[in-house]
């Protein structure tokens, strides 16, 4: 037996199994080590080419998903091929006598992994029959987990864009969301849509934890961009909570619940970016005043923004990492 081939094959199988199970089954674990590295490098490359055509970035999610599946298949296929190459008598040709070539081993592993029926080759009795059964089981596990994973990811992508559109339907920045929900006297109709948006944001955060690849599904549709919608929502919450008189504000419990959900989202996705060195554009109270919304003084609101500058720089870093511009209206 060639122990080098056998050890290499087993190592590849272990690496493939760890990364596959880590990525598809461990909800709190995020992506496996290999998948995480693959996602970062692919996004970095496509983001760079996206400077010439932003539409190229929309390929990031599908390309990363396809490459990840291909990587698992290659690792399992290669691992089993080296295992069966470790012994000259591991396989026998059921039609023609003679030595087994690498191409024939490749063929045997392929049709055994994907249960394509009996081919021209068969394992020798004993250990190799057991290993063939394990190889078929690993192929079935790969197919089952991959299909389930792909469907779950695509469902999460749809939910992500639905959330973004729900927020964008109220406004494309914090000021427009606040002015849209102002009825001329108070914000009495905010609670229902805000609770619905908060629930959707919590689901989006959970999906990001379970499927980190979700972060790389880019869209060039501004209204479907989740990171911009979260930034707009956070600015709107700041304006509701700190820029309007207490008597006119929406329910504190509703606002605090939404603010907590935004913070949870930031804590989850901040691993994909670093805090921006630049301060993002500031909300413009003049827009609210023009719409008849009562506000605090500019000086008082500036103190509020000073308290929130680290949070807003974290959000700005996420937006920059996603190759987008802040949805604000006034530069600092």
From TrEMBL:
<feature type="domain" description="Potassium channel">
    <location>
        <begin position="75"/>
        <end position="154"/>
    </location>
</feature>
<keyword id="KW-0406">Ion transport</keyword>
<keyword id="KW-0813">Transport</keyword>
<protein>
    <submittedName>
        <fullName>Two pore domain potassium channel family protein</fullName>
    </submittedName>
</protein>
<feature type="transmembrane region" description="Helical">
    <location>
        <begin position="12"/>
        <end position="38"/>
    </location>
</feature>
<feature type="transmembrane region" description="Helical">
    <location>
        <begin position="59"/>
        <end position="83"/>
    </location>
</feature>
<keyword id="KW-0407">Ion channel</keyword>
<dbReference type="InterPro" id="IPR013099">
    <property type="entry name" value="K_chnl_dom"/>
</dbReference>
<dbReference type="GO" id="GO:0034220">
    <property type="term" value="P:monoatomic ion transmembrane transport"/>
</dbReference>
<keyword id="KW-1133">Transmembrane helix</keyword>
<keyword id="KW-0812">Transmembrane</keyword>
<feature type="transmembrane region" description="Helical">
    <location>
        <begin position="126"/>
        <end position="151"/>
    </location>
</feature>
<keyword id="KW-0472">Membrane</keyword>
<dbReference type="Pfam" id="PF07885">
    <property type="entry name" value="Ion_trans_2"/>
</dbReference>
């Amino acid at each position: 037996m060639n122990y080098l081939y056998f050890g290499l094959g087993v190592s590849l199988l272990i690496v493939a199994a760890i990364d596959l199970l880590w990525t598809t089954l461990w909800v709190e674990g995020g992506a496996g080590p290999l998948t995480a590295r693959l996602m970062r490098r692919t996004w970095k490359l496509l983001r760079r080419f996206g400077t010439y055509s932003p539409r190229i970035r929309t390929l990031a999610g599908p390309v990363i998903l396809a490459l990840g599946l291909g990587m698992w298949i290659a690792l399992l296929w290669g691992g089993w091929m080296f295992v069966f190459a470790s012994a000259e008598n591991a396989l026998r040709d059921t039609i023609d006598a003679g030595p087994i070539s690498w191409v024939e081993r490749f063929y045997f592993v392929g049709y055994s992994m994907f249960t394509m029926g009996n081919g021209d080759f068969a394992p020798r009795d004993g250990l190799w029959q057991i290993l063939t059964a394990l190889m078929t089981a690993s192929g079935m596990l790969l197919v089952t987990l991959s299909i389930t994973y792909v469907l779950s990811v695509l469902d999460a992508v749809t939910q992500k864009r639905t959330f973004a559109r729900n927020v964008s339907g109220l406004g494309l920045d914090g000021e427009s969301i606040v002015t849209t929900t102002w009825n001329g006297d108070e914000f009495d109709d905010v609670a229902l849509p805000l609770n619905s948006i908060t629930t959707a944001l919590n689901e989006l955060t959970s999906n990001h934890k379970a499927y980190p690849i979700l972060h790389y599904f880019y869209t060039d549709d501004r209204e479907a961009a989740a990171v911009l919608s979260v930034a707009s929502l956070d600015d709107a919450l700041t304006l509701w909570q700190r820029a309007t008189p207490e008597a006119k504000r929406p329910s504190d419990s509703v606002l605090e619940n939404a603010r907590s959900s935004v913070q949870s989202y930031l804590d989850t996705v901040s691993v994909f970016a670093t805090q921006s060195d630049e301060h993002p554009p500031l909300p413009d109270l003049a827009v609210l005043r023009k719409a008849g919304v009562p506000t605090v003084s500019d000086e008082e609101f500036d103190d509020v923004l000073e308290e929130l500058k680290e949070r807003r720089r974290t959000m700005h870093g996420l937006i920059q990492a996603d190759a987008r511009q802040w949805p604000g209206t006034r530069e600092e």
